[in-house]
Request: fold
Amino acid sequence: MAENQFIEYKESWREEYLKWIAGFANAQGGTLLIGVNDKGQVVGLDNAKRLLEDLPNKIQNALGIIADVNLREQAGQAYIEIVTQPYEMPVAYLSWGVSPTKR
Reply:
């Protein structure tokens, strides 16, 4: 499956990808796949289990929303799937990681 407005591939996790999650929440929703290259091939993650534990809290603390974070595997390679539903209220991405509710 090719990248489009509903799906984005990233080979590794970076904090700045919270902006993609906020963008999906502000639009029609979408899925961010971590551990997948731009061609849609699973390249895997060494820290997939740690990300599975850390990302739900990181998303909630930084954006004030809940996203489904799932551990997936293909051909022995683990990757993370982050599914974001559209939100009725605007979701702000603050690059310093402070939730608007904590200001």
Observations:
- The chain has a mean pLDDT of 91.
- The domain at 7-87 is CATH 3.30.950.30 (Methyltransferase, Cobalt-precorrin-4 Transmethylase; Domain 2).
- The radius of gyration is 13 Å.
- The beta strands are 7-10, 30-34, 68-74, 77-84.
